[in-house]
Amino acid sequence: MKIDDVKKIGVLGCGLMGNGIVQVCATFGYKVTGRDVNDDVLKKAMENIVDGKYGLNRGLERGKVTKEQYDFAVRTIKLVTSMEELTEDADVIIEATPEILTLKMNLLKELDKLCPEKTILASNTSGFSITVLGGVTNRPDRVVGMHWFNPAPVMRLIEVIKSESTSEETVNCIKDLSIKLGKTPIVVKDSVRAYGFVANRAYGALRRECQSIVDEGIATMEQVDTALKLGYGFPLGPFELTGLIGRLGRSKLNTG
Ligand SMILES: NC(=O)c1ccc[n+]([C@@H]2O[C@H](COP(=O)([O-])OP(=O)(O)OC[C@H]3O[C@@H](n4cnc5c(N)ncnc54)[C@H](O)[C@@H]3O)[C@@H](O)[C@H]2O)c1
User: Fold this and answer.
1) Predicted TM-score of the model (pTM)
2) Which residues line ligand 1 (CB under 6 A)?
């Protein structure tokens, strides 16, 4: 699959990350079908896409989204409960279901059965090995990590994770897609021994050390934040960032 062949994107799971991903893909002109387990979740997802804090209305007000993009997205986004509708003629499926390994493995197997031969399966997992996820399918060369950051319409980074089996063509397609969606991709190797890829592992290590400094009574959280902002030019201190992620990510420090 080459980037110019990508026309229809499916998003499996329309929760916090999935509905933002649906919104971004549709804003940039792709036909998007999102799938979740019931109509209540889909209703909330659509409300978030249109009226949420980072939704289309806000984007329009702030000049981040044009009227054309807005109209196209609202007109074309399809949210469904059927796996068949999700997978029908999909060029890329982005999997954004809960971070439970067995669930993702089962869903990838199902996607592999239902999707056309051409379809790339991209997982938004925060840290499971893409080699393991691809290994349950008959198309490991077309399974890749596409790790977005929260909130998806705002954060500019996408980690593109290449497993031992992912083909160059697949990696290039997802890298090019990320650029078309206004993001900056970094292509990295699968992390087989440790959970997490680049940003989460680096941030997690920093955050743990900062917590030790506080626990040992050496400095307060505010002082640690001040030290890293003024001493190293961090735009936000690690504890301030945790507060932000906590609010946005509904609790976990390192959800993704
Ligand atoms: N929250 C973050 O900050 C963040 C950031 C980057 C990556 N991630 C990763 O993104 C993925 C999703 O995380 P989230 O925070 O959006 O979770 P979430 O719980 O908000 O959303 C998951 C959605 O998947 C749906 N779902 C469950 N089973 C399904 C199925 N069989 N078919 C379709 N939908 C199904 C749920 O109903 C829910 O709406 C996880 O792998 C997570 O690690 C999360």
Assistant:
1) 0.94
2) 12-18, 35-37, 41, 96-99, 107, 124-126, 148-150, 249, 255-256
